[in-house]
# Entry
Amino acid sequence: MKMNNRTIGGRMRERASVLALCLCLTCMFSILSGTSYAKTKGEIDASARAAMGRFKKTVKGGTAYLKGAKGVLVMPGIVKAAFVFGGQYGQGALMVGGKIAGYYSIAGGSVGWQLGAQKYDMVILFMTDDVLNKFMHSENWEAGVDAEITVINKGAEASVETLRSQHPIAGFIFGQQGLMGGVSIKGTKFTKIHPDQ
# Structure
């Protein structure tokens, strides 16, 4: 059977594309797995408190938001990596009345043309007892399914009372440069974890 140069060239491009995809996926999963090891309570506590400090410095009105919230879920150092398929992972703590009330992991995925890796912190404020209790009594809680989370973007400002009445669950996603814009956490899953001491 005779093969022409187009057929051979097409197959070689196909194989090169598959190889490139495999290499990129390997890199993406190695980045994610490097951060997904089980942390101890002490490590999560320290990371969460450091993220709270960054939140107060980075977000205008951050201290007032924290005081006005019934509960605060702090997810420090979330790593998101993507090459067509994307994923994110992190571990954090729920604080109620300034004390740790539980530990959670975050996992999410997405599909679409995307490339790269980034690290950021997430703070979710539960502004009413009702939404806080529903979250605390759920083993697996999904943003956009179990409740809507209003992500506060860069440049947006809202008072504590506005959040409480119009956006009972508010999310802040920020990195070293401050609040990040255009971020969606719909479909992100929060799962209770029980880390070692």
